[in-house]
Amino acid sequence: MPVKVVTDSVSDLPPEVVQELGITVIPLNVRFGEKVYRDGIDLTTEQFYERLVHNRVLPVTSVPTPVTFAEAYDKLAEEADEILAIVLTSKLSGTYEVARQSIGLMKRKCRVEVVDSQWAVMAEGFIVMAAARAAQAGASLEEALEVVRRNIPRVDMRAAFDTLEYLRRGGRIGAAQALLGSILKINPIITMKDGLVEPAGRAHSRSKAIDHLYQFVASYAHIEELAIEEAACPEDANLLVKRLSAVFPKERIYRSKTTPVIGTHTGPGLLLVAVMGDK
Fold first, then answer.
1. How far is CA 275 from the centre of its chain?
2. pTM listed for this prediction
């Protein structure tokens, strides 16, 4: 029986990709006051940003419960002998540890391997997609794991912010703290390195920030996958897609909205590109 692939909602995979590749997505949680919402399920992106902007109390995020993972594993074990879970970087979330601990709660016997992708958003998503495609083609768990290991260093991302204030409040800013000195005067640009948020530059206008994202993608010698994500700034995403169609087929560019869990830490106005390929 084919290997089943599991990931978390921070991978930002478009719904049609999830369905096509048979991927199981475990939602993280967002809490506004006493109300808890499952990421991307109970609260739309539009509803989330409306609340985020107008709510005095910032939401908080939390990892899925061990039972949530265990139940998902058990359900997949009905039709598979092996499960591969690929989750967001363990340096920013406890999801990886929960996914591992949940194996002990399973009621069915099934081999489960959990991998720390060291990434988030569609950079994580591309690794998941590669593994799911391999599984659909009949790869064993070991072969799918090799696909994951091979592609972790082949993905990268850049993200332009209106502000790093939300990252600062959430404690997820890492070395990008250095950008805060001129937070009101620049459009910060970040990436991830070894699972942590890192500064990648600063632009003095939104248009310059979009230029930076374009140049980052254009620097690749070979692009296998490309995604544009946005948080309440679809016009900027449309502009970037139009520009990038000069270096990569427009119809192959994935469009995605960052989920509420990501939005909690970034705020509105986030625009990012994720690439799988070779420099």
1. 12
2. 0.93
